[in-house]
Design brief:
2 domains, five-stranded mixed beta sheet
């Protein structure tokens, strides 16, 4: 039997870990719930069906209860449900973002495959310049996150 109640700070603080992980669903936002693990960790989650009935459910993690308040998690859940209603899939979008190439990986790929059109010394100089100047500043950024301002800097 699923436990269902309004998820407030007091209600979340009162949840005790059990022998097995369990879910407590919110009574206001459909699909929004908290998962309580045996070690005491509590995480906000959202379950939805991208595309309606007949499609398997997707779950997305909205954060830990220590870092995200109930109101913040509820607002995020509502925003994700709005995206689903518009035809999106937040879980797939998040996975695609995680798999997206970083600038450092792009420089490595360019060094391995793309710089073959240059003479040997020119290629070595260009790759060294990219790795020395570009990677320390922008290397950890995803390709889609790089802005004109970053490049100018």
């Amino acid at each position: 039997m699923a436990i269902k109640r309004k998820l407030t700070k007091n209600a979340v603080d009162a949840l005790q870990p059990g022998a097995e992980p369990y879910n407590v669903r919110d009574s206001e936002v459909p699909g929004f719930f908290i998962r309580v693990f045996p070690n005491g960790t509590k995480k906000w989650k959202l379950e939805y069906r991208p595309g309606g009935r007949g499609v398997s459910t997707e779950r997305i993690d909205l954060g830990n209860t220590r870092a995200v308040t109930p109101d913040q998690a509820r607002k995020q859940a509502i925003a994700n449900l709005a995206e689903v209603a518009a035809g999106g899939n937040p879980a797939k979008a998040r996975m695609a973002r995680r798999r997206e190439m970083t600038v450092a990986h792009l420089v490595d790929q360019y060094a391995a495959e793309g710089a073959g059109h240059m003479k040997l010394r020119t290629r070595a100089y260009a790759i060294a310049a990219l790795k020395h100047h570009l990677v320390p500043i922008l290397g950890s950024l995803r390709i889609s996150e790089v802005t004109t301002r970053d490049v100018e800097r």
